[in-house]
User: Fold this.
Amino acid sequence: MSKIVERAKVIATECADKLNLEIVDVEWVKENHNNILRIIADTADGLTIDQSVSLNEAISSRLDEEDFIEDDYMLEVSSPGIERPLKNDQDIINAIDKYIFIKTYSPVDGVKEFTGYLKSYVDGIITISVNNKGRLKEHKIEKNMISKIRLAVKF
Assistant:
């Protein structure tokens, strides 16, 4: 993790705590020749526009005070959206019984992508129930085999 991300995460978390918000992720990325400090925040009920604006203002003020980023950049504060990535163990535990998407580094049971209901997460093993043509099948996937895991929308 870069020093910019480390320090920005501390600042964002302090600001978010005062507003009863959760910081989901902090990224320092370059897009279209622009540096972007991306802060993803959320609440149990979802992030409102007003909450996003308040957090943006609080973080921006602190970043201006500390002035530790030498390059020009844009600050972006947003919600993770409906397909929120599951970044840590607590996110995975909170997603039990929810509809999720998993992509693995290599095939598990001959498949690399799974969409279904998260049934359990025990000792680093995720159990997902997938409906395949009307038949439910449970797959057990080790967390270290997962390249991407997020909430999913069921159509």
About this structure: The CA atoms of residues 125 and 142 lie 5 Å apart. The domain at 89-151 is CATH 2.30.30.180 (SH3 type barrels.). The longest helix spans residues 49-66. The chain has a mean pLDDT of 94.
